[in-house]
Amino acid sequence: MSHHTVSVELENKPGALVRISQLFARRGYNIQSLAVGPTERPGISRLTLRVDCSEHTIEQIEKQMHKLVNVLRVVELLPDESVERELALITVGAPPDRRAELIALGDVFGARVADIGREALTFEIVGRPEELDAFEELVRPHGVRELARTGRIGLRRPGPRQSRAQAALT
Amino acid sequence: MTRMLGSDAILRSLEAEGVEVMFGIPGGAILPTYDAIARGTTVRHVLARHEQGAGHMAQGYARASGRVGVAIATSGPGATNLVTPIADAWMDSTPLVCITGQVYSRLIGTDAFQEIDITGITLPCVKHSWLVQDVREIPAVMKAAFHVARSGRPGPVLVDIAKDAQEAELDFNYPDEVDLPGWKPPTKVHERQVREAARAIAEARQPIVYAGGGVLNGDACVELLELIESANLPSVVTLMGKSAIPDSHPLNCGMPGMHGSKFANFALNKSDLIIAVGSRFDDRVTGKVSAFAPGAKVIHFDIDAAEVGKIRSADIPVVGPLKLALRQLTNELKTMLADKPMQTAAWHAQLEEWRGQYPYKYRKGAPGSLIKPQLVMETLRDITAGRNDVIWTTGVGQHQMWAMQYLQCDEPRSFITSGGLGTMGFGVPAAVGAKAARPDATVICVDGDGCFQMTCQELATAALERLPIVVVIVNNGWLGMVRQWQDLFYSERFAETHLTKQVPDYAQLAEALGAAGFTVDHEDDLESTLRAALEAGRTAVVDVRTDPEENCYPMIPAGAAAVDIIEMPDEEEVPS
């Protein structure tokens, strides 16, 4: 078993998304996260799926998805050859005397304060999903009241291979 | 461009697709389209007695003709009754366009009378489906539906059309092209892969072709025959592939799998190269996958890339249309073999030894004893020998396996059965559909008594639509295959499998439904009665009462390896 991120371009037609989720349910594939939204082309959506499965299964998933009439393209996003990001909103318990400490912690991760209340504040953080995991871990002792993540989205890097400069950028 | 109603547009679309016959039942939400039928169409409508029957008829039509089958039904229960045929067509890759009426658009989502989300229900078993709420979409959707159903790996599609879309007007123009940017079934074959396949075959010492239903679906029977004859390649043929190459052909080694012959199973399992052609390593063929053909390399030809490597990894995958792929393969192979002939003499000798050693066999009954079901098959085979106009359909169970073992099918598309889904009740309606496709053919449904009772109402359709078929019921009074499993694996606890041979009285039931009814109790009357039914000139049912204790052998238990095949018990082990 290993992690795989799959990027799917699909026609924005009624039922297109349900056909994909149904395929996963029916064939017993487990979706870890799923994010869908518009692309640069009108009428075309991009779906980014994260699945935990074997190499054999990911090959099957790609082939089965290719057969769906509304699916235009399926590619696996390999870690070295793609950019992946995710957004999280995290509401953390923050009495007035702890606020400064938390905000400083957020600064290190580039997390913005999206809202602030008397006893809590909401961070907004964008980054690689692993960074989000790390941030979540750090604020957990302060008491995470609510958390929402978008699920990762990804694109293939424009260049054919990852350069050293790109590696530094991620 | 002509101004017309949506309902008329549906029929004009069917006509533009060259549809000759559709099978269906009217009802509320599809009434506007039936009104259009009343206004006139060149498409013949066959009125079924149950939508499941209509669906299986469309399947029988498709399987006998190679064309797309069309079934039509109303919303709600009409649509849900089509689900079994749709699922069956999905499993067996049968091209089907199912048209269902849907409630008015404004009522969708309100749990209106006879409203059901049929596109939702059928999602896992269609190639694609459409819910049409805008009348202007009808021509393009119909065009796309037929295209998707027949292209690539064939299969069922569903077009659900709201009643208001049928009642509204549009400017009708049937498109020449489909607009489906995401639908790109392969049309070509990788030449390098084909060459590699040819090389592997040329070098193999113990090659075996493993041909499946894809050969029939891909219209590649001639090409497959050319391949096996030009390279002298032995072949096993699956249940779904039966009739793709003649059963009488000396290179045909018969059917492998759960109830296949020991010969065919040995041929497949002890080969050093499996050339899979339109077959999918179904569990009924492989048994325990890890023990299946352990010494064999695999070449896998299929139109569906997702089948290649799904169960058994392919050493040489070749994705594309079989007709094209096999033609290229034969050419490549001929060139290679001209320099260096194949070294397969020892393999052929071994195969012939097994062929002689392991025929299908059964113990003949003593004079006056109950009729053996295998004898029914042998008699049917013998009285139709030499005829090329016979199409067989079957239900699912013991009778199906005996039909597969004993009937001789030499013409493509002459054996129509439910393989993947294993749908009891498939046989009678499929026979009606096959008769509609091939009015010149003699269509014989070999059925079980359990199966027959599931769809026998369609005898009325056969009788009244003048689509005469002959149904031969192997009546052992039991759900025979289930009984066999209870006998072998559940310590003879025969829970709820006894139906009785007497109720219903099948001959009387046949007469009540407008068909001729015959009953056979004794071996002496078997042949004459079957001949009489075949010569009746109308729909006929022959109730053949058989030995209920006869099990179907050989048998590889589910999940076991081919080496664990159970043969017919020896004489002395059989209680007298």
List the SSEs and their pairings.
The complex is a heterodimer of chains A (170) and B (576).
Chain A: E1 2-11, H1 16-27, E2 31-38, E3 44-53, H2 55-66, E4 71-77, E5 82-93, H3 96-109, E6 112-116, E7 120-127, H4 129-139, E8 144-149, E9 153-156, H5 164-169
Antiparallel strand pairs in A: 1-3, 1-4, 2-3, 5-7, 5-8, 5-9, 6-7
Helix pairs in contact in A: 3-4
Chain B: E1 2-5, H1 6-16, E2 21-24, H2 31-39, E3 44-47, H3 51-65, E4 69-73, H4 77-80, H5 83-91, E5 96-102, H6 118-121, E6 128-132, H7 138-150, E7 156-162, H8 163-167, E8 169-172, H9 191-203, E9 207-211, H10 213-217, H11 221-231, E10 235-237, H12 262-269, E11 273-277, H13 283-286, E12 297-302, E13 316-319, H14 322-339, H15 345-357, H16 373-383, E14 390-394, H17 398-406, E15 415-416, H18 427-437, E16 442-448, H19 449-455, H20 458-464, E17 470-475, H21 480-489, H22 506-512, E18 516-520, H23 523-534, E19 540-545
Parallel strand pairs in B: 2-3, 2-4, 4-5, 5-7, 6-7, 9-10, 9-11, 11-12, 12-13, 14-15, 14-16, 16-17, 17-19, 18-19
Antiparallel strand pairs in B: 1-8
Structure description:
The complex is a heterodimer of chains A (170) and B (576). Chain A has 170 residues and is α+β, with helices and mostly antiparallel strands. Chain A folds into two domains: 2-77, ACT domain (Alpha-Beta Plaits), CATH 3.30.70; 83-154, ACT-like. Chain A, domain 2 (Alpha-Beta Plaits). Chain A has five helices and nine strands; from the N terminus they run E-H-E-E-H-E-E-H-E-E-H-E-E-H. Chain A has helices at residues 16-27, 55-66, 96-109, 129-139, 164-169, and strands spanning 2-11, 31-38, 44-53, 71-77, 82-93, 112-116, 120-127, 144-149, 153-156. In chain A, strands 5, 6, 7, 8 and 9 form a five-stranded antiparallel β-sheet that branches. In chain A, strands 2-3-1-4 form a four-stranded antiparallel β-sheet, with helices on one face. In chain A, helix 3 runs antiparallel to helix 4 (129-139). Chain A is elongated and about 55 Å long. Chain B is of the alpha/beta class and 576 residues long. Chain B contains 23 helices and 19 strands. Chain B has three domains: 2-172, Thiamin diphosphate (ThDP)-binding fold, Pyr/PP domains (Rossmann fold); 191-357, Rossmann fold (3-Layer(aba) Sandwich), CATH 3.40.50.1220; 373-552, Thiamin diphosphate (ThDP)-binding fold, Pyr/PP domains (Rossmann fold). Chain B is 38% helix and 16% strand.
